[in-house]
Amino acid sequence: MSPEAAYRRFNRELRRFEATWGVIARTTEAEVTPDEGRWRVATRGPDWAVETVYHLVRWDDVIERDWKGSDWRRIPSGLLAFADFLWNGAFLGYLRLNWRYACFFLYPYVLLAAMAIVALVGGIAASNLSSSALVGAALAAALFVGLLQWPGRRLFVQQLLDDWIFARRYIHGEHAVLGPRLDRIARRLCEAARDGEADEVLVLGHSLGAVLAIDLLDRALRLEPRLGQNGSAVAFISVGSSIPKIGLHRAAVRFRAAVERVANAPAIFWGEYQALTDVMNFYKVDPVTAMGLKGRSPTIRQVRVKAMLHPASYRRIKRNLFRVHCQFVSANDRRAAYDYFMLICGPLSAENQCISRDGAASAVHLWGGSNLPASEGQWREDERTRRPTAIRPLGSSLRGYGRQ
What we know:
This protein is of the alpha/beta class. The protein contains 17 helices and 9 strands.
């Protein structure tokens, strides 16, 4: 998704966020550079206001280039990725930790095999009827190409093959475009944290974007080992993440070292949100211990997608695996323990939201309209004094987002 499309989607979802939580939110126009999309968000309730600078780390150009590739190159590369993840122990790790993710890994390859079998059967039938092997071979090839285009694209076969191809390339070497880009963004992240103008610098990574977020923070820590100890607080939130997808591969030595450095960074809070109904994340899996690493584990929260949406909305999306996966970066219909926009531009720090049982709702009465009592939108003093970490409204925040 291009930064322009992401900006339009962000604003559309922001309107849902306003309706759900009864807040007022406004954005500036998006500024697009080769490295990122950037815009400001202002949110407020009766006795709080937050200014957020939202940074979208770009890799839509990488995805678009892969998507435009030929299927005749994509299929052998995808099969090579399948063999690589199988041979290097990643698939066995998926089976051991989360059988649902193992099924997700197999999904595009099972569909590809089914299409090949259908095309082969059709070719054999045509060969027998025409008494010509050439006719049979031509029909089999045409049938396979047709199945790849439809229903293949509707079933996301090409998209998922590209995903595994990219993952394999990422494991075996630094990406020629993303590597230098992450270096540049890491320098800007360090400068922002050091300046201390923001109350919080939040790096949020969704799906494979969580892998890139780890990479980004590792590069920042190599530039500034005391990141987060002086200046702005620094937090990392991984949602619906694919961290074990990469880390369980035997050859992902560089990435596992990065995870270990981020996990052990004394001043970086790491929170991880997982959901059972999202087959593209590792539910009830600690990414640090799962990879056999030494260090602090993230604060892990299991949340329910069903609790975030109205029943009718949930019924519409529950069989759409990609839409369920994307709820982690969409607005909610209901006030729930996990809320993407509350993390991004709400009045409570990411750490406080993550450690609170009910998220932002456990620490603040949120404005719900003119017909609600005056206390709506005001901080709960008892919550503020009960918690071991002081809860205070954020006045400003700088947010980074590593996307799927």
